[in-house]
Write a structure and sequence with these properties.
7-stranded parallel beta sheet; two-stranded parallel sheet; NAD; binds uridine-5'-diphosphate; about 325 residues; Epimerase_deHydtase
């Protein structure tokens, strides 16, 4: 076997980001095993990969100990939209914490490298702007978002403690808001909500006054960064922010979606959810300097590709 060909395990491999990662790694000639309990990932995301000779799907929960020999592990298994992760908060916490322990145990016993999909949510409602990796965050440990935020923070702690205690080869990346084809149409995230509402001519649901900001990264750019992060030398563990530093208010995002879809939907306003971060924008200096990475796809181009995807989904041309 070519030594450059890796055997790669992707937990959450059927989800939005996981499935794009599977596809990219297969296209680079690697052998890919997707492990997923299909709770938020949908099989349609990997339909095109199922016949590929180097692809395998294992239906299993990441909370169950893993026995499989691989070179690299990307740990993506976890519900990730606020609506979905709050649905069963204790399950979300278990997935983050037990999932991290299981992938770390596997990596420690086999020598595999393991990358944790952490999140900008570790910064909570940030008091420092933009957020650099040195910022320790402002998380409410007892609020409705804590199951995800604290779960992911605990997973980071586990990664660094395994690294210090056992020398486990780790990478931790903090992923900021990401969008693109294969987002679920009904998991409550802002880009999918707005695009689907606009295409259907329904009201666009802006929470609060829409003055809160986010910074949206197109999925293709994000996948580039993940693969580069995994290739960093062993002493470069992260955490590394990955995201698009171009910040936009939620109201402006709604306006962009209306313009790009040509929709006649109108905006309606309702209460801001509890603990909803007011501002979020990554400082990506470390990603730029360590990996030579920065996002290439601007918001309008990425939104147009996402709109094309949802047009197909809603017209029933594509599965999901
Ligand atoms: N949001 C909104 N309308 C929606 C869905 C979300 O105004 O239909 C807002 C939400 O309150 C938040 C931002 O959009 O301020 C991003 O929400 P999302 O759930 O996509 O992810 P978050 O960044 O909060 O994890």
């Amino acid at each position: 076997m070519n030594v450059n060909v890796k055997r790669v395990l992707i937990t959450g491999g059927v989800g939005f980001l996981g499935s794009h990662l599977c596809e990219r790694l297969l296209s680079q000639g690697h052998e890919v095993i997707a492990l997923d309990n299909l709770s938020t990932g949908i099989r349609a995301n990997v339909d095109d990969l199922l016949g590929h000779p180097s692809f395998r799907l294992i239906e299993q929960d990441v909370c169950t100990p893993l026995l499989i020999h691989v070179d690299e592990i990307y740990n993506f298994a976890c519900p990730a939209s606020p609506m979905r992760y709050q649905l069963e908060p204790t399950g979300t916490l278990k997935t983050s914490v037990l999932g991290a322990i299981n992938v770390l145990d596997l990596a420690s016993s086999t020598g595999a490298k393991v990358l944790q999909a952490s999140t900008s949510e570790v910064y909570g409602d940030p008091q420092v702007h933009p957020q650099s990796e040195a910022y320790c965050g402002n998380v409410n440990p007892v609020g409705p978002r804590a199951c995800y935020d604290e779960g992911k923070r605990c997973a980071e702690t586990l990664f660094f403690d395994y690294h210090r205690q056992y020398g486990t080869r780790i990478k931790v990346v903090r992923i900021f808001n990401t969008y693109g084809p294969r987002m679920l149409r009904d998991d409550g995230r802002v880009v999918s909500n707005f695009v689907v509402q606009a295409l259907r001519g329904h009201d666009i649901t802006v929470y609060g006054e829409g003055a809160q900001t986010r910074s949206f990264c197109y999925v293709g750019d994000l996948i580039d960064a993940l693969i580069l992060a995994m290739k960093l030398p062993d002493d470069m563990t992260g955490p590394i922010n990955i995201g698009n530093p171009s910040e936009i208010s939620i109201k402006s995002l709604a306006d962009r979606v209306i313009e790009l879809t040509g929709s006649r939907s109108r905006l309606i306003y309702s209460d801001l959810p509890v603990d909803d971060p007011v501002r979020r924008c990554p400082d990506i200096t470390l990603a730029r300097t360590s990996m030579g990475w920065e996002p290439k796809v601007d918001l309008d181009s990425g939104l147009s590709r996402t709109i094309d995807y949802f047009e197909k989904i809603l017209s029933g041309v594509a599965a999901a």
